[in-house]
Amino acid sequence: MGVFFVYMLKSSVCLAMFYLFYRMLLSKETFHRFNRIALLGVLALSCIIPLVEVSVQEEPVVSQPVMTVEEVTAIEEVMTFIPASVDFVAETSSPFPWKALMLLVYVGGILFFVLRHLWSLGRMVRLLRASRRETLKGGITLFVHREKVAPFSWMNMIAVSEEDLEENRNAILTHEYAHIENFHSWDLLLAEVCIFLQWFNPAAWLLKRELQTIHEYEADEWVINNGIDAKTYQLLIIKKAVGARLYSIA
User: Who's near 220: CB < 8 A, 6+ residues apart?
Assistant: First the structure.
């Protein structure tokens, strides 16, 4: 388990460093597709780089031996299995089980955010079941709800209220189509998994928020390119901006 903790620590440091690099150099750029690929690359690199081992032909000469984090962790794990009868082990009080406490807190955090994700998914499923269904082109299912609900999409599903469908059908459906056609749901799913494993890392949360912002930019650009009047669409965005999205996965 100690090796896994070391890997997660390295991965979280890499994610924070790469995200900081992205914020400083790329976040202000308007090439949304490139920025999206860059953020997904940050996720991939932060998982791959900690697995890479760098070796040299000649060991450097140092004044004293230096142990890696993995070696220190391995030694500590071995020490926990040494019998108490060994003469150099103190017969006093047992050490505080800080490893077990860290493991408990880490696993508890994962369970909390997984359960929160499932609760959000359950709310979304209940809303979809209470909605009227329509089949659109490309095998996309449209769920029309009688009550007021902010439009959202997930995988190949679009949910919208009857009021929004009647007033702004073309603009809203085009916007949600853009999310589906660009596979934005998969991006958010990867970001959610990253948050599950690195819930303690602020960079994981910021990266997901950055991805969501880029998704909206991409969808807006898609709408304008498909012939929707820009000024009318701007007013629609302002109107819908006050509505809260209650489903973190959508």
Answer: 175, 233, 237
Do residues 15 and 204 touch, judged by C-beta distance below 8 A? yes
The C-alpha angle 178, 172, 207, rounded to 5 degrees, equals 50
- 127 touches 149 (CB < 8 A): yes
> What residues form DSSP beta bridges with 160?
144
Three-state SS string across 28-77, please?
A: CCCCHHHHHHHHHHHHHHHHHHHHCCCCCCCCCCCCCCCCCHHHHHHHHH
CA distance 211 to 195: 13
User: Given CA atoms 6, 8, 10, 12 in this order, what sign does their dihedral have?
Assistant: negative
Taking residues 173-197, what's their average pLDDT?
93
Biggest distance spanned by C-alpha atoms of the chain: 83
Model pTM greater than 0.70? yes
* Cα–Cα distance measured from residue 153 to residue 177, given in angstroms and rounded to the nearest whole number: 8
Instruction: Note the pLDDT tens digit of each residue in 22-52.
Output: 999 887 878 889 999 999 999 999 999 988 8
Provide the 8-state DSSP code for 141: E
Q: What confidence tens digit (pLDDT) does each residue in 50-107 have?
A: 888 776 666 555 555 555 655 656 555 555 555 544 444 444 556 777 778 888 999 9
Burial state string for 228-249 with b = 16 or more CB within 10 A and e = fewer than 16: beeeebeebeeebeeeeeebbb
